[in-house]
Design goal:
It comes from Scophthalmus maximus (Turbot). By secondary structure, the protein is an all-alpha fold. 76% of the residues lie in helices and 2% in strands. The chain has one domain: Tetraspanin (Cd81 Antigen, Extracellular Domain, Chain: A, Orthogonal Bundle), CATH 1.10.1450.10. The chain has eight helices and two strands, in the order H-H-E-E-H-H-H-H-H-H. A two-stranded antiparallel sheet has the order 1-2. Helix 1 runs antiparallel to helix 8. 26% of the residues are buried.
């Protein structure tokens, strides 16, 4: 059977949106893999201190993004094929997967909004626990390990300290804060601010990608329903 008129236009529009959806899945998969292997986040999240691994909540969202990107590419291909073949079965299956993906995306967006500050707060607490040990003038057994952990933070984020200019910080600043070269001043930008900035940028990128995908999915669901109705009502349907 072959659709005609406006329904035929809808068919090719659906194919186009599915192709864009498939491409968006590839882009999201690529961005997720980049976020997973980004040197800044990787250097921080592999750290261990006193038997504790740095909080990996950020990686949970990245792994979800990888799975979503892969599923989007599969579903996008299914939608393209179903549109060209004018198959109600394939389009119905495609619509079902779209609804599931859309519901998961809404749920993930709500969870992400409610926990948007959790990632940076967890790493700030991890940084502070090492910082307390590193500035301990009594000579804590874990002081050397703490200084090594802070060194990774300071060199990765180009920062030093918690943003407080206390007498104790000024006393240890020469030990904790790295220099770019022999003549440069010590770096004293707050690592708290740098951590918030780092993960805010990455979460905004994830949020923007999710918003674009949600808009495409809404159009696809509408076009899929219209095309299915057009196929069902076409003269050759039986």
């Amino acid at each position: 059977m072959a659709v005609a008129g406006c329904t035929k236009c809808i068919k090719y529009m659906l194919f186009f949106f599915n192709f864009v959806f498939w491409l968006a899945g590839g882009v999201i998969l690529g961005v997720a893999l980049w976020l997973r292997h980004d040197s800044q986040t990787s250097n921080l999240l592999i750290l261990q201190f006193e038997g504790q691994q740095a909080p990996g909540t950020f990686y949970i969202s990245v792994y979800i993004l990888i799975a979503v990107g892969a599923v989007m590419m599969l579903v996008g291909f299914l939608g393209c094929y179903g549109a060209i073949q004018e198959s109600q079965c394939l389009l119905g299956t495609f619509f079902f997967f779209l609804v599931i993906l859309f519901a998961c995306e809404v749920a993930a967006a709500i969870w992400g909004f409610m926990n948007r500050d959790t990632i940076s707060k967890e790493l700030i607490n991890f940084y502070d626990s090492a910082y307390i040990k590193a500035v301990d003038v009594s000579g804590s057994p874990s002081k050397d390990a703490a200084i090594k952990v802070l060194d990774v933070f300071h060199n990765t984020l180009d920062c030093c300290g918690k943003g407080d200019d206390t007498a104790l910080f000024r006393q240890v600043v020469g030990t904790l804060c790295p220099r770019k070269s022999q003549g440069d001043f010590l770096k004293s930008q707050s690592c708290h601010d740098k951590l918030i900035e780092l993960f805010s940028e990455k979460l905004h990128l994830i949020g923007l990608a999710a918003l674009v995908v949600a808009v495409i999915m809404i159009f696809e669901m509408i076009f899929t329903m219209v095309l299915c109705c057009g196929i069902r009502n076409s003269p050759g349907a039986y």
